[in-house]
User: What shape does this take?
Amino acid sequence: MATWLITGCSTGLGRALAEAVLAGGHQAVVTARDAATVQDLADASPDAALALALDVTDPAQVTAAVRRAEERFGGVDVLVNNAGYGYRAAVEEGDEADVQRLFDTNFFGAVAMVKAVLPGMRHRRSGAIVNVSSIGARICPPGSGYYAAAKAALEGVSGSLRKELQPLGIQVVAVEPGGFRTDFAGRSLTQSATPIADYAETAGPRRKENDTVHGTQPGDPAKAARAIVTAVESGAAPNLLLLGTDALAAAEGVLDAQRAEIAQWRELSASTDFDA
Assistant: This one.
């Protein structure tokens, strides 16, 4: 039995993951900015679940959540950084304050959570950190540049963190979901206030008023949650866990295109060393 601390549990993948963890016989600290939205999870499993208010952009709440988890269950064995939201805008359209808030939640908040749980994990020489990214970090759709950048930053940190923590017995895995039927493309999605007409054909189709994807995504959040639990419980979680056939196809397409482009430009790339 392990203790999982999961951020962003009010809906979607976070809630599905909390349910899967508890169904698997584990303990769970379920969090959301409004604890009332996750209290039902704790009420259904009073001995195994703790519901807490947590805004990952608030350092005091981050510290308090980890402390409460340690007091109640003795420590955090698995941290899942799931809290986050989408933001759509052409790069030129992006509002500076909106972009800062996006990075504060999707990147800096996740890093704060990692730093809060690591002392305990290092002391026990065990644990797992799951950072929920997005296939968007790999495919970089037009209109999602800032979101893709925030998730790519999270994946960069995850890669270095894995190398730092592997000798200490701590797993790190970045998860790239494709499209799942959650609130991500609905209630949780934000966008720039003022569109620029020149981007109507590129970023424009991804604006909320033009996007027809919500509610038709192929991914099942419950199955995604079980896949994450399986990967962590294996004790040998991959660097990158892709979730969904759409994510698999997109990642393979990007890799094939990158290999082809590297080959096309290999001679020029290799021409920049000092002459022997």
